[in-house]
Specification:
The chain has 114 residues and is of the alpha+beta class. The chain has two domains: 70 residues, Arc Repressor Mutant, subunit A; 30 residues, no CATH class. The chain is built from three helices and six strands, in the order αβααβββββ. The protein has a three-stranded antiparallel beta sheet with strand order 1-3-2. A three-stranded antiparallel beta sheet has the order 4-5-6, with no helix packed on it. A hairpin with a 4-residue loop joins strand 5 and strand 6. Helix 1 packs across helix 3 and helix 2 packs across helix 3. It starts with 7 loop residues before the first helix and ends with a strand.
Length: 114
């Protein structure tokens, strides 16, 4: 019995995940750089970037590569893409932080326990 082939939707979802992970790790990349880091072909990465941009997850930063050949566009995760709340409770108090999709702290609050 031969294993079933993955569906086109599954392959697209996996490609999109690889693009998002690359942008989370490196903050801004060209499509060629994403392809090199993920090992996925440039045309497939271009399709994924278009899908992710259309859904508001990825944006063109407006920056362009310089040098020989066609200039490439840099892409990044969309601002405000997502946040997580992290809380710590200790004898000294409660601290809560919000972090964005890149892991940067965007807000912090502390309340002492009495």
């Amino acid at each position: 019995m031969t294993p079933a082939k993955p569906s086109l939707e599954m392959l697209r979802a996996l490609t999109d995940e690889n693009v998002l992970r690359a942008l989370m790790a490196d903050r801004r990349l060209t499509r060629a750089e994403i392809a090199a880091r993920t090992g996925i072909s440039k045309p497939t990465i271009s399709d994924a970037v278009q899908r992710l941009a259309a859904s508001g997850l990825v944006v063109d930063t407006g920056e362009r590569t310089t040098g020989r050949g066609r200039s490439g566009s840099y892409y990044a995760l969309a601002p405000g893409l997502g946040t997580a709340l992290v809380a710590s409770i200790s004898p000294r108090g409660v601290t809560a932080e919000t972090v964005d999709a890149l892991g940067d702290t965007v807000g912090r609050a502390h309340a002492a326990l009495s």
